[in-house]
Amino acid sequence: MKTKKLSTKHTPEQLxxxxxxxVTLTPTQKKEAAEQLAAARKKGQKEMTENDRLSLQxxxxxxxxxxxxxxxxxxxxxxxxxxxxxxVDLLQVKRKxxxxxxxxxxxxxxxxxxxxxxxxxYVAVRLEIHSNNAIPATYWFKxxxxxxxxxxxxxxxxxxxxxxxxxRKIAVNF
Amino acid sequence: xxxxxxATGKRKAIIIREAETEDFKLxxxxxxxxxxxxxxxxxxxxxxxxxxxxxxxxxxxxxDWPPEKRIEIKLLASSMENIGKQKIYERIAGCLITFAxxxxxxxxxxxxxxxxxxxxxxxxxxxQKYHMEHAGWQLYLEGNKxxxxxKEYL
Lengths: 174, 154
Hints:
By secondary structure, chain A is mainly α. Chain A has helices spanning 3-9, 12-16, 27-47, 50-70, 80-91, 95-101, 106-113, 121-130, 137-154, 156-163; one strand at residues 19-20. Chain A is extended, with a radius of gyration of 26 Å.
């Protein structure tokens, strides 16, 4: 449908609720538009509070975590420990301070970060509460599950070890 | 994200994914206002669908400008039956704009920006509806305004 036809059929408000028209600017207009936007953003960045910045950093963290747990691919670098470290780093607090905030020992926190120990469920719940519900406990849990699933899929040694305990296999081939 | 069926007030979960080759056959000018094939090479085209359903209800073409930490919404269209007072669902455009914000924040963090070049008569409505700010030729979202839209739609 032509722009003119849309504009006569609907009010500007209705159009703004449904459409963004592709507008082409001349090279001069483009240059002017870039300068205007750069100036406005420079001013906006100066006025941004620490709280605004933290909120967007938390969103970024959440989206990256969401994208990873929704993606079927396993990445050995993106562990529970990796994301926990990212979370603590974005809050700009010392590990001791953060461990105190969720009532765990600093050593235990380091063990989680360095993946020397898998986190129990209560840690995921405390992290959810700590983030003021921004990062659901299920996200942390799914991260751990994803890692466990990969380990279970790829652990040949465990299969070799357990094989001797299975005395009969079903006859059907899959 | 969710859209709302106006007749029943029922909220329906949506998914937004990159449009595939076969989708462009369905993205006709008659149903989606523009010739989407012509934007295929210059923009990344995303489609909005109700979760578990095949029909496309909205489309958006984005351009990423990494040096500026900015994503530009070049064009966006709700399907013809979702424009105007007789529309079936509301929030289609809002969900698509929020998706662009999500992409920008995921990639650029707190410095992220989403922009568009509006038609003059629509400027005040984009500003009212989506908290956009005016910068000469362009409208944009960043900082707390971007944060506000994310909190409203996600």
